[in-house]
Write a structure and sequence with these properties.
The complex is a heterodimer of chains A (495) and B (158). Chain A is an alpha/beta fold and 495 residues long. Chain A has helices at 11-15, 18-26, 68-71, 92-95, 113-118, 123-129, 133-143, 155-164, 185-192, 194-208, 222-237, 260-267, 296-308, 310-314, 347-354, 388-393, 412-426, 432-449, 454-471, 475-479, 481-490, and strands at 3-6, 32-35, 49-53, 56-60, 84-87, 171-176, 212-217, 245-250, 291-295, 317-318, 321-322, 324-331, 338-342, 364-369, 376-377, 402-407. In chain B, a hairpin with a 5-residue loop joins β2 and β3 (114-119). The chains are: A alpha/beta (495), B alpha+beta (158). The interface between A and B is large, with 59 and 42 residues. The structure holds flavin mononucleotide and FE2/S2 (inorganic) cluster (FES).
Amino acid sequence: MSVRVYVPSDSTALSLGADDIARGLGEIDLDIEIIRNGSRGLCWLEPLLEIDSPEGRLGFANVTAKELSTLFSDGVPGSAHPRCLGLTEELPYLKQQRRLTSARIGLMKPCSLDDYRAQGGFTGLTKALEMSCEEIVACVTDSGLRGRGGAAFPTGIKWQTVLSAEGDKKYIVCNADEGDSGTYVDRLIMECDPYTLIEGIIIASLAVNADEGYIYCRAEYPLALERLQQAIELATDAGYLKHFKLQVRKAAGAYICGEETSLLESLEGKRGQVRFRPPLPAIEGLFGKPTVVNNVISLASIPGILAGGAASYQAYGSGRSRGTLTVQLAGNIKRGGLVEVPFGLSLRQLLEDFGGGTASGRPIKAVQAGGPLGAYIPPALFDTPLDYEAFKAIGAMVGHGGLVVFDDSADLGQMARFAMEFCAVESCGKCTPCRIGSVRGVEVIDRIHQGEQVEENRILLRDLCQTMIDGSLCALGGMAPFPVLSVMEHFPDEL
Amino acid sequence: MAALNIEQIALDIASPLAEEPGALLPILHALQEHFAYIPTEVVPGVAQLLNLSRAEVHGVISFYDWFQAEPSGASTLYICRAESCQAMGSAAVEAAAKQHLGIDYHQTSDDGRITLQPIYCLGNCACSPAVMLDEKLYSRVSAESLVAMLDNLPERES
Ligand SMILES: Cc1cc2nc3c(=O)[nH]c(=O)nc-3n(C[C@H](O)[C@H](O)[C@H](O)COP(=O)(O)O)c2cc1C
Ligand code: FES
């Protein structure tokens, strides 16, 4: 019988030569079956080759096409081979996680419906089909799920608003714009397990009586776009999308289009400018109709919640942060990858126990949590638990769960400047505090760095930050000051 | 004559998409896929097709970084400038690219082979620094590996 060899196929694995490995394996004269799975999200081990054994799948990390002839010189390598990591499932990094939303990534061929069903796919949908709209919404509300895109708004309450809204037509919009630096879990789900997202969207449509929906996916993710397209076609052919028309829309490189009202403008074919609110998108959203806008991870968490029940999801977590968070370790980190854990772990556990400290081996200087609008957190605060409210209490945010690590060689004064520069580049231009304030912010920071009237300019910078926080139309201008203020507070020598 | 042709081709591409609600972005993507940029000549036709003003169509093209209003090089090199890649030394990669190509961001090398663009996160932040060349992603890029990559770039037509 042939031995199954799994060669991952997400963007990261491909960028590290996974296709060359698959090609090389094809030329080896052994009875092997090559399976192109997604990725386990253990990014630092990619390409992570896995080989079936009677005990389970054995892992071989950082494999190159060049070494295949040696690796397979004595036949298919087994657990005794020096390059073998043992069973992938037993790797502490994976074993100590609680993968609910990302449970299936890397286990199967991403677009295979058979694989998806074999891994328990569509169990949540089957349950939802027997429930009323109100019951589905209640299940999501009771699970305690809060939006994973950044704002952490309770998903069930949003759905209830759309369900209650009057409308001849309602939409589900999936926000797959994933613009935050340090985040890549939406990509992993879309590239490795697209049906979980599609199932979540279908359940959302049943919950609020929507008959049409869009996945707005960033243009920077060509492979995710391709896989979503293929998965939707196959799901349509298999009859899963009879009552619901689902389309993928390619974004066009504007960070602000991750903001939900700007995203809706973009879907309508306009410039991605933020809308004034009210009205909420849940009441007047896409083309003026009641619309659910949810992040990829929020929606991809739904099938598991329906399948396992609200209580089992709600049982995980800390305080008002229920369930699990798909943390993404990034930047200068030794073991960068996806870490899905219940809320409540400390930052230190994530960065040290999972991440193993910096890639450079130098001490950690700071971690930026929650994307480009998130604070720089110093090591003195690393006992903070992963929890929306606990992060807020230290002036930080969980956001989409990205943690970007910097070692002691980093120039955080420059990173503060970059926060303002990024805001200036990405501002939609509709409100002055964001559009002009960010440009002024860069100038003032430059003056401080040049030693010009430092104290006066620091006061000016604080005032400017406050004006942006108070006066901006959306969180781009409203939060870009946070990384700046955090550097001023925690690293006063640098700004 | 050439202009007429471009307009006609553009209409052939755009018309089947025009019925979709919010069709402008899908149309612009399709046009850029075909022409490698969005020629100004196509704007009036697209505007008329969608019942928009030319200014509105121009406004959308200029709003989105992904849409190129000018022809670009045979290849486009996107260098990630976002935080995770900065934490891993992307500044050196950026400097090497600019120096080696003799250009700044948003410019095309003299031989017309490469256009250099900044990008803010490629979703590859566990293996930073990242760059993307012709929709192919590269991980853990260094100044040296980038220069080698540019030197070994196969010939492509502009
Ligand atoms: C500047 C800005 C960028 C944002 N980018 C994203 C994004 O890329 N993806 C996302 O899901 N939410 C993003 N959001 C949050 C959305 O506005 C919105 O809260 C979210 O899509 C709602 O879905 P959720 O409740 O499932 O999180 C962004 C918000 C702002 C202000
Ligand atoms: S910050 Fe460069 S890939 Fe994410």
